[in-house]
Design goal:
By secondary structure, the protein is mainly alpha-helical. 77% of the residues lie in helices and 4% in strands. The N terminus is likely disordered.
């Protein structure tokens, strides 16, 4: 569609000619005045003007077609870029989700170990409290036994001393 040869001239009702899809060009001059040129030359002039207009329109259509193809190519390129970006984002999101899952698992494990350690610490504290109270009682008994031993040993020494003197 780059040349005017592809267009078909159509005879209109009022005696005008036009390319298909174009506005009609009147065959008679405006206001009913006759053209001073002979009818054949006038017809040839109109055909020449009409072909120039059709050629110009076909060039415009070719330019529009080229521009449309360029816009389609840019749109395709833009869609590819967007698709690639979305794929990258999806893979990054998947990796972050996996990382979050691993971190949540590790956090749960650490919290569980911490609870277990706190439970062990509580049990150790109770055992230590029990052992400390037992140690206190043992120290008291030790002090009582030591005093008793010292009294008995002093009494025994006194007895031995008496027996050896005699």
């Amino acid at each position: 569609m780059e040349t005017g040869e592809d267009f078909v001239f159509v005879e209109q009702e009022e005696g005008t000619q036009a390319c298909e899809g174009q506005t009609p060009i009147p065959t008679e001059p405006p206001f009913g005045k006759a053209n001073p040129k002979p009818p054949e030359q006038s017809q040839a002039s109109r055909l020449s003007t009409l072909s120039v207009v059709c050629i110009q329109h076909s060039v415009d259509l070719a330019n529009l077609y080229h521009d449309l193809k360029e816009v389609e190519r840019e749109t395709r390129h833009f869609q590819e870029d967007i698709t690639n970006t979305l794929c990258t984002l999806e893979s990054t999101l998947r990796a972050l989700t996996e990382l979050m899952t691993r971190l949540e698992t590790r956090t749960r494990n650490v919290e569980q170990r911490l609870r277990e350690e706190e439970d062990r610490g509580t049990a150790r504290s109770k055992i230590l409290a029990f052992l400390l109270s037992g140690e206190k009682e043992l120290r008291k008994k030790y002090a009582i036994l030591e005093r008793m031993f010292l009294k008995k040993s002093a009494w025994l020494e006194g007895m031995i001393h008496k027996w050896t003197k005699t």
